[in-house]
UniProtKB/TrEMBL annotation:
Keywords: Glycosidase, Hydrolase. One of its GO terms (biological process) is glycoprotein catabolic process. This is Beta-mannosidase-like galactose-binding domain-containing protein. Residues 6-56 form the Beta-mannosidase-like galactose-binding domain. The keyword Metal-binding does not apply.
Length: 124
């Protein structure tokens, strides 16, 4: 709470609402200056019990070459050619010092479709 108040005093460029909650909430001011769950600072009927320290699960991950960070498949239909397409997006964290060759295999058994796309993960 003290840190949030200090950050609010330092920040002069513009007001960051809400500066304080309504008095009926008996909450804390300047909650948007600290990365905590907002409901910890009270809400319409809840108490103000700001958490301290780490408030979510923590885990340690280790890998030698790369790690898949994000993966998404978006289907879309092109009316002018009457054909479905898949947009595949992925993001990797690559710690290898050398490029890593690989491939993406798309397999849709119900449609008897299988396609393989070669690729390369670059360091960095």
């Amino acid at each position: 709470i003290l840190y949030a108040a200090q950050q609010s005093k330092i920040h002069q460029a513009y007001k960051v609402p809400p500066e304080c909650p309504p008095p009926v909430q008996k909450g804390e001011c300047h909650v948007n200056f600290i990365r905590k769950e907002q409901c910890s600072f009270s809400w319409d009927w809840g108490p103000s019990f700001p958490t301290q320290g780490i408030w979510k699960d923590v885990r340690i991950e280790a890998y030698n070459l790369y790690h898949l960070v994000y993966f998404s498949v978006t289907p879309f239909y092109e009316r002018n050619i009457q054909q479905w397409h898949l947009q595949i997006e992925s993001r990797f964290d690559v710690v290898s010092k050398k490029p890593i060759a690989g491939f993406v295999a798309v397999n849709i058994p119900e449609l008897r479709i299988q396609q393989v796309f070669p690729g390369q993960l670059l360091p960095g």
